[in-house]
Each structure stands twice: as structure tokens, then as C-alpha cells.
């Protein structure tokens, strides 16, 4: 792995810890835990834009703290414990996660996997916490309540409205987005821990229905499908965040890669592994010369990138490698991570003794992500730092340690 020495240095640098800790420590002296979470930041803003706790991305910053906590416990040699005591990190992780607990019973969102799993799966795995498992069980059952037997999927959005379309009749319109594949791990995890096979059956049925309808012959991916709730037939296939309905939104493709790789890891159903491999191969085949994904593979402006798509797809490929031991997907993942990191790694922050931080001019680890550059979007956001790009970067670092890749 000598070709990736620079990547290894960046993955486990003190700067990575400093970026997360610099943001986290600013709220530790507040009277109450945070009820808003970081989402994105631009160079000229010099600071995160925050979202209310119920927003779908709000699990990722506490999840980043938990990813570092996991690293400090399992791989202390790759964590700067002399400058930031693990007990201090544990307190910060719990402080930032506290307000997430009330989100677990929600039945108005499909994003409970994103909101709840990054924190509470790790907390349960690290400590055996009954409270964390109870939160996961509550969230999994709330998510399962959005499943419809006729459609065979978990409802993603209740409505979808922009300049081009208006799908808002919940008695007929049943909207499913590809991102939803990455909420299924919450159902699979709780099923495994509790023996509630109803949850895993719902997850598998959703994955099977999505496999039938969400992909083109070349394994590129639609973003949104609208099913007829009354009979399960597909009404429309379209995009909400990609360039066009028949284009290939790169982050949607990456959600699919990771979602099917994880579905295979839980079920061992070969059709899910085959799908993950085909989806990954399509993703790799669309990369430009510098190896950094465009925000949409078919968009005319290839200068707008989405590094978050690269991180998510890479994590999916590492899961494929873990399941198959096919070095193609390990090598492809490492190359993709390396290219994205070379392109988008921000100015280093400094971690000083006692956990003091010099954050610098940018408070995310990576830049060059794109939330939504769709021409009809109410608000376009492109080429910025993004909380879940950093979260998956940290998760990748831990995964590579789990796989002993750099040994």
C-alpha cells in the first residue's frame, strides 16, 4: 500500500480530528445540548450553516464524533489521545447526540437510518447500551410503519413539488428515492439484534422492489420513482437533485452502490451483491481523468463536482471487497478516495495540547461537494463542504483499519 501513504497520513491526521473537535467544542459550554446541527459551509462563509434537529442530515455530525470515538477505543494508535483525551471526546459525542433521541419515534420521515444509526449503532456496539438499542428499536419500527405492502417499498417523501411537477396526493402518489436504500441497515441491524424478522423482511422487500424498477439497462440509476399507491404500478421516473430525468446523478448512484452492498452483507442474497457490483462498475466507468466524480455524470458542466458521492461509493466498494475479497474493489475504492482527497482536502487545522484547536479558514475536512444543482431546484448549492462527506471520510478511515488494509 506504499502508493497510498499520503492518503493514509490524511485519513488519520490530527487535522481531521481538529476539524471535528473545533466545531464540536464550541457548543460544549452551552447550558443545553445542541438542537441544530452543521450541514454545509462555503469558503467565503468561514463557518457551517446549521439545520434544525429534524432535518435528515442531523445525525452525521454527532455520527462523526462517534466515528472518532470508535477510533479512539478500537484503534488508539491512529488517534491523537495525548492531545484530546478519549473521555473528553466521549462526553462531546454524547452531548451532541442527546437531542437526537427524541427523533426516534418519528413516522413522518424515511431518513431515520441517517438520523439515528450513525450514533446509536456505534454507541451500542461500543458499550452494549440498552438505551441505545431501545432507541434503535423505536426508530426501526417507526421506519417500518412507512412500508406499503401493495407497493413493496418504504415511502420516502410524502410530496415532491418543484417548478416542473407536483406530486402531493398521498392517496395516489407514493414516492421512493434511491437514497432510501441506505436507511435499510437500521432495519437489518435491529432485526439481527432482536430477532424481529418482520423488519428484515421489509428491508429485503424494499431492496427487491427497487432492484426491479430503479435502474436502467446500463445500471445507471433514477433518483425518484412515483408508484401508484393503489396498485403498485410505476407512474413516473424523474430526478429532484440530478441534472435531468434521464441523466445519472452521481450521489444517487453512490447511495445505490452502498445500499446494495450493505443489503448483501446482511442477507447474503447474491442478487444484491451482483447489483452492487454492476452499480459500482457503472460509477467507476463514468469518472473523469482526475478521478473525481462530477455532480451528475451526464451534466454538460463537468466542473461541478460531488466529493460526497466519491466517499459514499468508496465505502460501498469497500463493503463489496469485504464480501468478495476481489481486490479490484479495494484498489478502486482506495484510488477514488485518494483522488477525491487530493482534489478536496482542506487546509489543515491544528490540534494543540488539551484539545485546543486552531481551525483555520474552513471547518470541514473536504470541500467540493454538491447538495443540489438541479436547474429547477428552489435553491442550488454546489462546490461546498458537507457534513456527510466528512462523516463518510471518517467512516472509511475506520473501515480500512477494520480490514487491516494498511498493515
UniProtKB/TrEMBL annotation:
Q: Which residues form a coiled coil?
A: none
Highest taxon in the source lineage: Eukaryota
Gene Ontology molecular function: chondroitin hydrolase activity
Keywords from UniProt, A to Z, are: Hydrolase
GO:BP terms for this protein? polysaccharide catabolic process
User: Is Ribonucleoprotein among the key words of this record?
Assistant: no
Q: Which Gene3D superfamilies match?
A: 1.50.10.10
Q: Which InterPro entries match?
A: 6-hairpin_glycosidase_sf, 6hp_glycosidase-like_sf, UG_Glycosaminoglycan_Hydrolase
Report the family membership: Belongs to the glycosyl hydrolase 88 family.
Q: What is this protein called?
A: Glucuronyl hydrolase
Upper taxonomic lineage = Eukaryota, Fungi, Dikarya, Ascomycota, Saccharomycotina
Amino acid at each position: 500500500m506504499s502508493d497510498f501513504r499520503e492518503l493514509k497520513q490524511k485519513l488519520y491526521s490530527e487535522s481531521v480530528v481538529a476539524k471535528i473537535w473545533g466545531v464540536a467544542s464550541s457548543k460544549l459550554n452551552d447550558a443545553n445540548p445542541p438542537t441544530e446541527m452543521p450541514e454545509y459551509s462555503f469558503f467565503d462563509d468561514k463557518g457551517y450553516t446549521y439545520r434544525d434537529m429534524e432535518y435528515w442530515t442531523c445525525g452525521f455530525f454527532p455520527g462523526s464524533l462517534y466515528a472518532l470515538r470508535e477510533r479512539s477505543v478500537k484503534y488508539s494508535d491512529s488517534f491523537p489521545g495525548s492531545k484530546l483525551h478519549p473521555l473528553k471526546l466521549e462526553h462531546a459525542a454524547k452531548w451532541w447526540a442527546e437531542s437526537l433521541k427524541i427523533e426516534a419515534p418519528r413516522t413522518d420521515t424515511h431518513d431515520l437510518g441517517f438520523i439515528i444509526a450513525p450514533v446509536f449503532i456505534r454507541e451500542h456496539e461500543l458499550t452494549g447500551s440498552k438505551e441505545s438499542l431501545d432507541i434503535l428499536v423505536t426508530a426501526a419500527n417507526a421506519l417500518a410503519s412507512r412500508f406499503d405492502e401493495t407497493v413493496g417499498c418504504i415511502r420516502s417523501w410524502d410530496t415532491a413539488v418543484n417548478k416542473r411537477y407536483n406530486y402531493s396526493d398521498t392517496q395516489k402518489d407514493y414516492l421512493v428515492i434511491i437514497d432510501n436504500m441506505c436507511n435499510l441497515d437500521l432495519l437489518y441491524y435491529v432485526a439481527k439484534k432482536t430477532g424481529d424478522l418482520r423488519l428484515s423482511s421489509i428491508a429485503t422487500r424494499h431492496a427487491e422492489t427497487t432492484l426491479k424498477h430503479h435502474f436502467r439497462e446500463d445500471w445507471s440509476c433514477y433518483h425518484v420513482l412515483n408508484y401508484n399507491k393503489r396498485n403498485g404500478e410505476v407512474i413516473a421516473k424523474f430526478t429532484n437533485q440530478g441534472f435531468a430525468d434521464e441523466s445519472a446523478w452521481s450521489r444517487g448512484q453512490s447511495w445505490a452502490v452502498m445500499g446494495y452492498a450493505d443489503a448483501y452483507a446482511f442477507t447474503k442474497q447474491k442478487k444484491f451483491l451482483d447489483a452492487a457490483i454492476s452499480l459500482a462498475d457503472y460509477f467507476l466507468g463514468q469518472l473523469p481523468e482526475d478521478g473525481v466524480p462530477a455532480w451528475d455524470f451526464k451534466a454538460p458542466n463537468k466542473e461541478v463536482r460531488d466529493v460526497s458521492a466519491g466517499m459514499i461509493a468508496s465505502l460501498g466498494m469497500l463493503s463489496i471487497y469485504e464480501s468478495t475479497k476481489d481486490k479490484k474493489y479495494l484498489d478502486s475504492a482506495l484510488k477514488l478516495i485518494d483522488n477525491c482527497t487530493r482534489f478536496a482536502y482542506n487546509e489543515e487545522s491544528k490540534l494543540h495540547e488539551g484539545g485546543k484547536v486552531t481551525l483555520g479558514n474552513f471547518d470541514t475536512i473536504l470541500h467540493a461537494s454538491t447538495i443540489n444543482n438541479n436547474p429547477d431546484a428552489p435553491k442550488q448549492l454546489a462546490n461546498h463542504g458537507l457534513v456527510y462527506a466528512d462523516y463518510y471520510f471518517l467512516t472509511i478511515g475506520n473501515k480500512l483499519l477494520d480490514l487491516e488494509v494498511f498493515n
